[in-house]
Write a structure and sequence with these properties.
single chain, alpha/beta, Rossmann fold, ten-stranded mixed beta sheet, six-stranded parallel beta sheet, 49% helix, 15% strand, globular, binds pyridoxal-5'-phosphate, Pyridoxal_P_attach_site, EC 2.4.1.1, carbohydrate metabolism, pyridoxal phosphate binding, Glyco_trans_35
């Protein structure tokens, strides 16, 4: 079917006609997409079956990665690339006058995630399959992924995302492997034959139906599985209100992260978490029991990973299944549970650490709550032995305290490994945030610096750069991203520099075209493309970037002789629908863009662009076109970041704080090839502890700061003067929690250096190439190999078809 382009063309045309019932000339792009997608899935299926059979027959240890988010991005072209048939397909389609890129545009961009955490899970799946590691993802098949963002009048408007509207060619529904999930009801405890038993009565049953999607490794025969669960009504008692039952049930998998500011939303989210965990664990145990008889040895064959605390209910749920269903004693079950589970922490922001009120938790999951209480009591007793009389410490470390269930504590106590996602983040966990746990479990804590799959973010997103690298150092880096370092020997060759400059320029042209189409703004290809794309959040400090632009505008207005290297400031960001401040910053960026882009003189030097609906497919067009990567979070707040790695791999230079993986990027490329500024994490944490920061002092003592901050409310923007008052208040009245004004001067200085450095064209190109050559370390293949060796203890399996 895909052996050469003629064979492909022949089967494609045949299939197109039989599937769509029309002649080739009448078919639409969508017909063509669906036909090609189905052909590819069919081609995958024999490898998929082989892989599953191999896993069954070899019966070696497998890992299951539980995540409430998988931010996959489009799959068609990535699958073609990984299968090694992209060229054949592209050639065949070209003969028919079809552009693969146009067909790809028909594929929806599955956004079953918010940002970095979900994208990491997607990169990990790609690396697991490519490294021939037996590892599968378990998640939720949200009917609506992350909302589509529209900008109306400078304000964000959310529309429901519809990735399933035209079906999903990659999924296979497996109704025979459905699991039953119980909510509400009561637990009846009985004691007979010397044994306690627990019966869940009056529960509401929900059916979890799996949809499996293939995860294709790159140029290998391994095809792993991403299993996404769909909630459906199960058999129910006849006197129930059927309609409301049906509605409540289906609501569980309707939306990614429903609004959790109200209790109804909270219950739904908690339901999602238990739904994911219970269905996944039942499925994992069922498949284990097919090949193994002794459930007490589950951890020899199975590792289960908890991605952030959302799946932390895996701890009590595994205990429940092992005790209530499999008949193990508490101690036996605890041994298996803790030896099976491992956990990744993704944040130290206290508002992001999940805590559930008991009054919501207990009625919804009565048996799970009982088990957590027991885990907590045993844990507190242990603490009492270690720290007799230290009530304060015990209260602080308890899993249940002050009528709240603390999910991070549950995950730590119930796992054999707890990892952070960048060196500095893991250090902060060990020595500050989770110090008391590190004191009692020093060997559980470890670091696994995040990574990204170079197959999507280099090979797929930037074929021009990929070819240039291949022509320069050969193809080894494709399989061993560390080999990108070989590029370093060539960076002084003028040819390479020129070719790289051409590749970058071409991608800037493509992005500029898109900006012209979507935003109606013409941008200068010779300007610096200075990009900040990521979720909108106060700690990521898009505001610092904005204030710098206002400052530049002021200087350009005040002094007609002030010259700088022209720049295009590009933003992309979604704000959580209920996050008032974040939405204000989006409006502010638009007001600033109006002001700057409409000034006849200033707009020749700087421009501001906000790209709507930031998502994986848009990201694939942005990273290759960037010159400067903005990674300016308040030090200590960004656990790792992964956008920073995608920029680096595509030859953009980082302007960044010493935060998250920026630090490791600096260690890789050297201080001369990155622009760092601002407070260190230690300085930020010290300020937070001693309370000695006064943003007002910076406002009063730095004229530049006073001017830009005043401009938020003095009629400088055409909006009414109250529009941005809350932003000004966050800086002055609320004492600038994220140290924007504290880092302002240092940011202005480094940005000036960036402008000057860009004008030393040759040197800049060398720095960009040095960044690319050191980006191999940030491949998720390295990250996943470390998880496999140190945490999961799994080995690769060769698949032969
Ligand atoms: C990589 C990525 C992110 C994470 O970006 P950070 O800068 O690390 O926050 C978020 N969204 C999308 C679509 C991404 O591709």
């Amino acid at each position: 079917m895909f052996s050469n382009s003629d064979r492909f063309k022949e089967s494609f045309l045949k299939r197109l006609e039989s599937m769509c019932g029309k002649g080739f000339e009448e078919t639409t792009k969508r017909d063509q997409y669906l036909t090609l997608g189905n052909m590819v899935r069919e081609y995958i299926s024999s490898k998929w079956i082989e892989t599953n059979e191999l896993y069954r027959s070899e019966n070696k240890k497998q890992v299951y990665y539980l995540s409430i988010e998988f931010l996959l991005g489009r799959l068609l072209v990535q699958n073609l690339l990984n299968l090694g048939i992209k060229d054949v397909v592209e050639e065949g389609l070209n003969d028919l006058d079809i552009d693969l890129g146009d067909i790809e545009e028909c594929e929806s961009d599955p956004a079953l995630g918010n940002g970095g955490l979900g994208r990491l899970a997607a990169c990990f799946l790609d690396s697991l399959a490519t490294l021939n590691l037996p590892g599968h993802g378990y998640g939720i098949r949200y009917k609506h992924g992350l909302f589509d963002q529209k900008i109306v009048d400078g304000y964000q408007v959310e529309l429901p995302e519809q990735w399933l509207r035209h079906g999903n060619v990659w999924e296979v529904r497996k109704p025979d492997e459905a699991a039953e999930i119980l909510f509400w009801g009561k637990i009846e405890t009985s004691y007979d034959n010397n044994e306690l038993s627990f019966k869940h009565v009056g529960a509401e049953k929900v059916l979890a139906v799996p949809y499996d999607m293939p995860v294709v490794g790159y140029h290998v025969d391994t095809v792993n599985t991403l299993r996404l669960w769909n909630a459906e009504p199960a058999a129910f008692a006849p006197n129930q209100d059927i309609l409301s039952y049906k509605r409540d049930t289906e609501a569980i998998t309707d939306f990614l992260y429903p609004d959790d500011t109200h209790d109804e939303g909270k219950i739904l989210r908690l339901k999602q978490q238990y739904f994911l965990v219970s269905s996944s664990l039942q499925s994992i145990i069922a498949s284990y029991k097919k090949e193994n008889s002794n459930i007490r040895e589950l951890h020899h064959s199975v590792a289960i990973h908890i991605n952030d605390t959302h799946p932390a209910l895996a701890v009590p749920e595994l205990m429940r299944l092992l005790m209530d269903i499999e008949g193990l004693t508490w101690d036996e079950a605890w041994k298996v549970t803790t030896n099976t589970l491992s956990y990744t922490n993704h944040t130290i922001l206290s508002e992001a650490l999940e805590k559930w009120p008991i009054y919501l938790f207990k009625p919804l999951m009565p048996r799970i709550y009982m088990i957590i209480e027991e885990i907590n009591e045993r844990f507190c007793a242990e603490l009492w032995n270690k720290y007799p009389g230290d009530w304060h410490k015990i209260e602080h470390m308890a899993i249940i305290a002050h009528d709240l269930v603390k999910m991070a504590h549950l995950a730590i106590v119930g796992s054999n490994s707890i990892n952070g996602v960048a060196k500095i983040h893991s250090d902060i966990l060990k020595h500050r945030e989770m110090k008391s746990f590190y004191d009692i479990y020093p060997t559980k804590f470890n670091n696994k610096t995040n990574g990204i799959t170079h197959r999507r973010w280099l090979l797929k997103a930037n074929p021009g750069l990929t070819n240039l690298i291949k022509n320069t150092i050969g193809e080894d880096f494709v399989h061993q991203p560390d080999k990108l370092i070989d590029l370093k020997r060539h960076i002084y060759h003028p040819d390479l520099k020129e070719q790289f400059a051409n590749v970058k320029r071409k991608r800037k042209e493509i992005l500029a075209k898109r900006i012209a189409e979507k935003n109606g703004i013409l941008v200068d290809i010779d300007s610096i493309f200075d990009v900040q794309v990521k979720r909108m959040h106060a700690y990521k400090r898009q505001l610092l970037n904005v204030l710098h632009i206002i400052y530049l505008y002021n200087r350009l207005k005040e002094d007609v002789n002030y010259t700088i290297q022209p720049r295009t400031f590009i933003f992309g960001a979604k704000a959580s629908p209920t996050y008032y401040y974040a939405k204000k910053i989006i409006k502010l960026i638009h007001s600033l863009a109006d002001k700057v882009n409409n000034d006849p003189r200033v707009s020749k030097i700087i421009k501001v662009v906000f790209m709507e609906n930031y998502r994986v497919s848009l990201a694939e067009d942005i990273f290759p076109a960037a010159d400067v990567s903005e990674q300016i979070s308040t030090a200590s707040k960004e656990a790792s970041g992964t956008g920073n790695m995608k920029f680096m791999m595509n030859g953009a230079l980082t302007v960044g704080t010493l935060d998250g993986a920026n630090i490791e990027i600096m260690e890789e490329v050297g201080k001369d090839n990155i622009f760092t500024f601002g407070l260190t994490a230690q300085e930020v944490l010290n300020y937070e502890e001693n309370g000695r920061y006064r943003s007002m002092e910076y406002y009063h003592h730095d004229l530049r700061i006073r001017q830009v901050v005043d401009q938020l409310t003095n009629g400088f923007f055409s909006e009414d003067e109250g529009e941005f008052e809350s932003i000004k208040d966050s800086l002055l009245v609320q004492n600038d929690q994220y140290f924007v004004l504290r880092d302002f001067a240092s940011y202005i200085d480094i940005q000036e250096k960036v402008g000057v450095a860009y004008q030393q064209r040759d040197k800049w190109l060398e720095k960009a190439l040095i960044n690319i050559s050191h980006s191999g370390f940030f491949s998720s293949d390295r990250t996943i190999q470390q998880y496999a060796d140190d945490i999961w203890k799994i080995d690769p399996m060769g698949v032969r078809v």
